[in-house]
Specification:
By secondary structure, the protein is α+β, with helices and mostly antiparallel strands. It has helices spanning 23-35, 84-90, and strands at residues 3-5, 12-16, 43-48, 54-59, 62-66, 71-75, 78-82. The model has no long low-confidence stretch (mean pLDDT 87).
């Protein structure tokens, strides 16, 4: 679900909320990060029903909405939400899915 995005030397892991079906996988990723001790124990991710549903990243009393087309980014400072415009201004996919690879 989460992929690495660059620039180097500080790539980030990020999950792109492209469709409602991606939210459970994003939630599992956040749970995994928490279980590995990479984010604080109080960090959680829930899904707020609606049309379309919204992901909610919670860190203590602070809540951040993850709406469709946005990215949940994990970097050395933890997890945060970025809108697509801001994300693509700073990062790129080194292996885009539509790129043809030759050997």
């Amino acid at each position: 679900m989460a992929r690495y995005y660059q620039p180097w030397p500080t790539p980030v892991q990020a999950a792109h909320y492209t469709e409602p079906g991606t939210l459970p996988a994003i939630g599992q990723w956040v749970t995994s990060l928490r279980q590995q001790g990479r984010v604080a124990p109080q960090v959680s991710f829930t899904i707020d029903g609606g049309e379309p549903p919204v992901g909610v990243l919670t860190n203590g009393a602070v809540h951040h909405a993850l709406v469709q087309t946005e990215f949940l980014v994990y970097d050395r400072e933890g997890l945060h939400v970025l809108d697509a415009h801001t994300f693509w201004r700073h990062y790129y996919d080194p292996f885009p899915p539509d790129r043809e690879w030759t050997q």
